[in-house]
Amino acid sequence: MSTTNIIAKITEIFDTNIEFEENFFKTEIIRGIEHTIIKGKLTYIPSYCEHCGEENEAYSIVKNGNQVVDILIGQFNSKPVILRLIKQRFYCKHCKRTFMAQTSLVEKNCSISTKVKSCINIELSENVSHKHISATYSVSMATVQRVLRSNDFKTNKHWLPEVLGIDEFKSLKSVDANMSVIICDVQTGDIIDIIPDRRKRYLREYLERFSKEARSMVKYITTDMYQTYIDLGKELFPNAQIVIDKFHIVQLFTRSMQKLRINVMNDFNTRSKKYKKLKRYWKVLLKKEFNLNGVEFYKYIHYSKLTNTNEILIDLLKISDRLAAGHSLYQEFLYIIHSSDVKGFENFLDKY
User: Fold this and answer.
1) Tens-digit pLDDT profile for residues 287-339
2) What pTM was estimated for this model as a whole?
3) What are the backbone angles phi and psi of residue 313, rounded to the nearest 5°?
4) Using an 8 Å Cβ cutoff, are 134 and 140 in contact?
5) CATH class of 163-244
6) Do 86 and 65 touch, CB atoms closer than 8 A?
7) Where are the domains of the chain?
8) For residue 174, what are the CA distances in angstroms to 178, 179, 203?
9) pLDDT tens digit string along 109-128?
10) CA torsion 292→298→304→309, rounded to 10°?
11) Helices (H) and strands (E) in the chain, counts
């Protein structure tokens, strides 16, 4: 096997226009870091001029010296590997301009191979800091950020899914109220885009970029109770029904139950047993009643006898009729949600 084939297999460089020297490995200190250096030469007969497009006929394009470039191609034995490549320069007699030989190993006017950039991209998909990636692949922080920016994708403005999900999440301090908006295909879970601002004028401006045909494709919009999402859904999506996410409805009822408990608790002295019980066993009031323990008995604070969470709930509800009434409504709601009873939920809304 030739030297070129050996190096090609080791380094995974399969450009047939590159030939390697016999003494293919040597080490060199560059910016205080030990590198492995591989020397090679890139040359071929070009079929046309890169500038004027003139075909290479009757030796209209000739060799015109060379240029040495260092290309970072990866790591070997925990050392950065550099391909020191002698690139052939060509001269076009037609336009009287020169151009360099090119290889698929690296982009034009770049000194970092596409393979290294692919590895950086994989690292960027994980929960790893830019500083760590920079140190691992012996590149600058600026290079890591450039690779990240090169991944910007364009959203198809002529398509939207039938079930569109809209929700916000905690984002950077630089955006309004530290919140950004994510829109996704609920059926597949695919993220369509992330919008850095959730204020109404910015959201309207963004959503109006989608064509009317795309917005007409949407049949359902699942969201929370943020009024901006509901208003824009009705205004911009003519065929869509607004569906409040079940999670946010449960969250609303849970917060209301918590607020009721705190109001009742504040009617008592902070040193009283009733106050302390309501403060300590708040989770018992929020749990599904059918999940509470009514069989096994344990020692609980503020209770002299062995008891269980079911008996604690009964004791807490005796403290206030208002608390008992609110808890009864809350448990009825939780049971309907747990059993996915759509008709029962409609009756629940009509009843209360």
Assistant:
1) 999 899 989 999 999 999 999 999 999 999 999 999 999 999 999 999 999 99
2) 0.54
3) -60, -45
4) yes
5) alpha beta
6) no
7) 3-111, 120-149, 163-244, 248-351
8) 7, 9, 17
9) 888 988 898 888 888 878 88
10) -10
11) 13, 11
